[in-house]
Amino acid sequence: MNKQELELRKKSPIQIKNKKASFEYFFVEEFTAGIVLTGTEIKSIRAGKASLVDTYCYIVNGEMWVKGMNITPYFYGSFANHEAKRERKLLLTRHEIKKLQEAEKQPGYTIVPTLIFIDQNGRAKVDIALCRGKKMYDKRQTMKEKEDRREMDRAIKHY
To answer: What is the pTM of this model?
Structure first.
């Protein structure tokens, strides 16, 4: 990911994050993928009505799918509204999918979506990460580091 992509991501009006993922997993490698959506789904995402809680990705027949992503039905949608928790296809290159498939076969590794954002062309994108699960002591260490950072920030603001 280059510097320009990071700047565009920060400017995105919609950033739906999977905050629990960074607590539960170590991120080994990150990718950006497109999502195949229907008309009312993109409208709901632009309104910020989506959630990445308990989502994961899997590969079937050389295609990447995301399961458990909740996109709330569009308020102004009619009979053509979408299903909230359907499985959605992710768009990655064949090389990236093959790389993820090989890595996922190793024990302890999984693929998790970490962020949904809107790119400069108005399309919804999702950042996915190849992750390795944390042990309990790793989680405690992460909590301790977060607490230390908070205390240092407080001390700096105090003076």
So the answer is: 0.78
120: tokens are: 């400069």
CB atoms inside a 10 Å sphere around CB 26: 15
DSSP 13: S
Distance CA 132, CA 26 (A): 5
pLDDT tens, 77-128?
677 777 778 899 999 999 999 999 999 888 889 999 999 998 888 889 999 9
- Structural tokens at position 71: 């996109």
Residue closest to 126 by CA, chosen among 76, 59, 56, 62 = 56
Helix, strand counts (H, E) of the chain = 5, 9
